[in-house]
Specification:
Strand 2 and strand 3 form a beta hairpin. The protein is globular. The strands form 2 sheets. A 6-stranded antiparallel sheet has the order 4-5-10-7-8-11. Strands 1, 2, 3, 6 and 9 form a 5-stranded mixed sheet that branches. The chain is built from 9 helices and 11 strands. It is an alpha+beta fold. The N and C termini lie far apart (40 Å).
């Protein structure tokens, strides 16, 4: 997506730091605006806004003391991750992803807001949908080896990942960010396409490159994140449904189960 002058405000996406995260509790977890689910002990997870701006977030995570499984909820984001001596890329998820944790596991990541990751990583988002791949599958091996040594030796690996991303010199597409912001605000796909001066088919094609899936799926994922944030704030589920943009509570329940794999009532509340 590179078109501007599209009738959609092209400011940064007001996602509040949407993101995917892990717990060692075997429970789903999602992060948005500093809210996270799961019985995570203090210090296990931290995040901060990145100096790169544009909604990018630097995060760090340490596994629990006991082995366990984890569930990563879709959020529309892509991540550059340091884990176990490797640089990895997490593509945008269209559904919940299961994973395993070992005691002592640690992750540091750079989470790109929806639509901003492809410019840095140099690959259309749909090619990485629902995948985790080593960075050297995308970038030349010699370059990745140098970057791996650099991050491994850094005192602040989050800052090192920021430097890696900044070295690309990528300029995120303002239209992609604006489309994500409009959908996150609850605007319809048809309205967003008209405002962008695109046909629905053009918007779908460009969304595949920018977000990994079409605008309808992205709208569902962002609406899920709005619902989680609302539920974690303590609202009744009927109010959550209305606030997040669902037709009713039954619609909310179906969508949460479809995207998260479990009922909303089984998602643990944030601690602290």
């Amino acid at each position: 997506m590179s078109r501007t002058g599209n009738g959609i405000a092209t400011g940064g996406i007001a996602t509040g730091g949407t993101g995917r995260r892990f717990t060692g509790t075997g429970q789903p977890v999602s992060v948005r605006g500093g809210l996270y689910a799961g019985r995570v002990e203090p210090g296990d997870y931290t995040q901060r806004p990145s100096a790169l701006g544009g909604g990018t977030v630097v995060w760090a995570r340490a596994a629990a003391d006991q082995p366990g499984s984890a569930l990563v909820l879709p959020d529309g984001c892509m991540d550059l991750i340091w884990h176990d001596g490797l640089l990895l890329v997490a593509g945008p998820d269209s559904r919940a992803q299961a994973g395993a944790e070992r005691p002592g596991d640690r992750w540091t990541g750079l989470r790109f807001a929806p639509g901003t990751g492809p410019a840095v990583l140099g690959v259309p988002a749909h090619e990485l949908r629902d995948q985790r791949v080593p960075l050297d599958a995308l970038w030349p091996g010699a370059r990745v080896r140098r970057l791996t040594e650099y991050v491994a030796g850094a005192a602040d690996r989050g800052a090192a990942l920021e430097a890696v991303a900044a070295s690309v010199g990528a300029v995120p597409d303002p239209l992609a960010r604006a489309v994500a912001a409009a959908l996150d605000a609850g605007r319809t796909v048809a309205d967003v396409a008209r405002a962008a001066h695109l046909s629905p088919r053009q918007l779908h094609r460009r969304s595949l490159d920018a977000f990994g899936y079409g605008p309808k799926t992205l709208a569902r994922v962002l609406r899920l994140q709005r619902a989680l944030a609302s539920a974690y704030a303590g609202r009744a589920l009927a109010d959550v449904a209305v606030h997040a943009g669902y037709a009713d509570q039954a619609h909310l329940s179906r969508e949460v189960r479809a995207l998260a794999g479990v009922p909303l009532t089984r998602l643990p509340r944030p601690t602290g």
